[in-house]
């Protein structure tokens, strides 16, 4: 076998993500010198690291050669799930034809026109959040002083969780509990939320707790359906057969996590970018009509999901290397979004960037079902914050999640008034 170019391990090291944020310098070098490189740190499953936009898009599009069912995340070797172990069915890790049948169930409810009808409600929710912040009803004072709060806790975490819980049809009073469960799944390798040595156990425990919680609602909606997503799932059929409780739980679990971790971190990351680019922020504050294109650029800039993995079903050449059947490829979305072959001056934050075909929501069959909702939420929350707290400024260092999967911000201390 020809020798494989070896990846710089810094491209996937969770400690580095926690300390410094995304390793953009490493990804930039990889795009230039080894756009496909073999990553083997002896701890996790080995994989091919893919860093160029065109390769990532081509792999995303070819869902016959690159499948999702063996898993879209890279696990530690001592935490691997045996192939025959029972698994929760998740659309994210299905292949055709099951994937299509499952996605069809939700597609209508997430289409742009349905999402646009929600916009007014989302804007009103943002106003309530800002009212609570202004009245100091939320937000721990990070340094004991009155004007300093944690942006994540007081603002960024609320909207996405409230919206997805409302869509599912479960009470928003349980938001904080849901936040902790969801953080344990996504932050399974972070000492604050998960278990650095046994991340799998942290995920399983949170998953069990979430399942117990959702099971009550599934039983209630089976007895008396309403208009919400749990009722839709209870009434759905695949090839004429109703979904099992386990299948419905899989949907609830996926939506509760995907609908909140991503948008929360996009919100915090976007606000941080605005704080760090005062000219762009001033221009946007002065011209709210620029918000949709600003949000696209902020989505490109932040790219809250670091990667998704695929498994090759046959031997195939990519960028001069042979990927063997059964090997994993990891698609680094933030790297695609800084690819100088596609974006002019990719390290400049440019709200007028056009076109802006970022891969923040993935590409192909599995591309994000909630992208319209996420865009509406981001526009609404950023518009409200810019208008209500024009002097909002950073009041201390940002603390980041120990994760190489989600670019998470755990805390972002801000001062509301100059
Ligand atoms: C800024 C916010 C968001 C980002 C960056 C994001 C990112 C992504 C990405 C990259 C994928 C592709 C997975 C793959 O290629 O395997 C995905 C899939 C998905 N997202 Fe999102 N997402 C966001 C918000 C949301 C929201 C608000 C929801 C739901 C309410 C949602 C629900 C889903 C679902 C259900 C899938 C699986 C689709 C499939 O497998 O067919 N996402 N998302």
UniProtKB/TrEMBL annotation:
Record's protein name: Cytochrome P450
GO terms for biological process, alphabetical: cholesterol catabolic process
Annotated keywords: Heme, Iron, Metal-binding, Monooxygenase, Oxidoreductase
CDD domains in UniProt: CYP142-like
Stored Pfam families: p450
Any one GO molecular-function label of the UniProt entry: iron ion binding
Summary of the function given for this chain in its UniProt record: Cytochromes P450 are a group of heme-thiolate monooxygenases. They oxidize a variety of structurally unrelated compounds, including steroids, fatty acids, and xenobiotics.
Superkingdom, natural source: Bacteria
């Amino acid at each position: 076998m020809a020798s494989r170019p070896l990846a710089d391990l810094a491209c996937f090291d969770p400690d580095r993500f926690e300390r410094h944020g995304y390793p953009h310098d490493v990804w930039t070098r990889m795009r230039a010198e080894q756009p496909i490189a073999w990553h083997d740190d002896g701890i996790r499953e080995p994989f091919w690291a893919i860093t160029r936009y065109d390769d990532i898009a081509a792999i995303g599009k070819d869902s016959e050669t690159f499948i999702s069912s063996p898993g879209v995340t890279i696990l530690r070797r001592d935490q691997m799930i045996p192939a025959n172990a029972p698994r929760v069915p998740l659309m994210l890790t299905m292949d055709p034809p099951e994937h299509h049948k499952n996605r069809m169930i939700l597609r209508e409810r997430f289409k742009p026109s349905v999402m646009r009808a929600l916009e007014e409600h989302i804007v009103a929710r943002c106003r309530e959040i800002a009212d609570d912040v202004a009245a100091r009803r939320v937000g721990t004072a990070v340094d004991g002083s009155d004007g300093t709060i944690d942006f994540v806790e007081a603002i960024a975490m609320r909207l996405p969780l409230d919206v997805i819980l409302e869509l599912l049809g479960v009470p928003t009073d349980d938001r904080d509990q849901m936040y902790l469960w969801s953080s344990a799944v996504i932050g399974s390798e972070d000492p604050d939320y998960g278990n650095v040595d046994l991340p799998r156990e942290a995920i399983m425990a949170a998953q069990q707790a979430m399942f117990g919680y959702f099971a009550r609602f599934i039983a209630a909606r089976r007895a008396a359906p309403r208009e919400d997503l749990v009722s839709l799932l209870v009434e759905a059929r695949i090839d004429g057969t109703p979904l099992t409780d386990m299948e419905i739980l899989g949907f609830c679990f996926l939506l509760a996590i995907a609908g909140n971790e991503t948008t929360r971190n996009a919100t915090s990351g976007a606000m941080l970018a605005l704080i760090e680019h005062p000219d762009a922020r001033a221009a946007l504050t002065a011209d709210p009509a620029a918000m949709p294109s600003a949000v696209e650029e902020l989505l490109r800039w932040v790219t809250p999901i670091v990667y998704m993995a695929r498994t090759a079903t046959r031997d195939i050449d990519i960028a001069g290397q042979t990927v063997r059947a059964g090997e994993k490829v990891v698609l680094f979305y933030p790297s695609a979004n800084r690819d100088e072959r596609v974006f002019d001056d990719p390290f400049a934050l440019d709200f007028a960037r056009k076109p802006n075909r970022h891969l923040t929501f993935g590409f192909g069959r599995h591309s994000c079902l909630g992208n319209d909702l996420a865009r509406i939420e981001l526009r609404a929350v950023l518009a409200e914050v810019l208008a209500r707290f024009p002097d909002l400024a950073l009041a201390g260092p940002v603390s980041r999640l120990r994760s190489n999967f989600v670019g998470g911000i755990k805390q972002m201390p801000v001062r509301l008034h100059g």
